[in-house]
Amino acid sequence: MGAVFFYHLTQRPLEATLPVLLEKSLEQGWRVVLRGPNVEHLSKLDAQLWLGNEEAFLPHGLAGGPHDDFQPILLTTQKGQKADCVICIDGDAPTAEEVAQTQRACVLFDGHDPDAVQTARRHWKALTDAGCAAKYWSEESGRWEMKAESGG
């Protein structure tokens, strides 16, 4: 059973944090699903990933292509995609079943948006109440530190 990591973004935007998490996930040999509710935002992230660092290219694709099942990183709005790691953005969250079936699930949220913070708190409660192990990571000090943990 995996765990869900909550990343409270306060120092760096999603667009700067995401490539680091994706690269670390690929280094683990994981297939990653990056999921959010907004197709336009996922399309923007897709374009940014294509324009990223050439030495650290992140192979990926936007869902809807003929080779979705073979993408090392799949950007999608749909639940139910097979993955070792599910990264949720823009208020999306993994289900307890997804957490149990993956190596890791992540929830990234904007710490400057009070609604996003409240949504993340609701997701934390729902997932930990369902028995999922969870860790809360903050970058408030300028570097990532684990601030809370729930057993699961």
Describe the structure.
The chain has a single domain (3-150), classed as Rossmann fold. Strands 3-4-2-5-6-1-7-8 form an 8-stranded mixed sheet, sandwiched between helices. It is of the alpha/beta class and 152 residues long. It contains 4 helices and 8 strands; from the N terminus they run βαβαβββαβαββ. The protein starts with a strand and ends with a strand.
| Rg, Å, rounded | 15 Å
CATH class: Alpha Beta
Low-confidence parts: none
What is the CATH topology assignment?
Rossmann fold
The total count of helices amounts to 4
Number of strands: 8
Termini gap: 10 Å
Which percent bin holds the helix content? 25-40%
Second CATH tier, the architecture: 3-Layer(aba) Sandwich
CATH superfamily: DNA polymerase III subunit chi
Number of domains: 1
Class from secondary-structure proportions: alpha/beta
**Quaternary state, please?**
single chain
Specify the biggest β-sheet. Answer: 8 strands, mixed
Gross morphology is: globular
Taken in chain order, the helices and strands follow as EHEHEEEHEHEE
| Strand line-up across the major sheet | 3-4-2-5-6-1-7-8
Mean pLDDT, all residues: 94
Strand content: 25-35%
Organism: Aliishimia ponticola
GO molecular function: DNA binding; DNA-directed DNA polymerase activity
Protein name: DNA polymerase III subunit chi
Pfam family, one: DNA_pol3_chi
Task: Please give a handful of descriptors for the protein shown.
152 residues; alpha/beta; eight-stranded mixed β-sheet; 32% helix
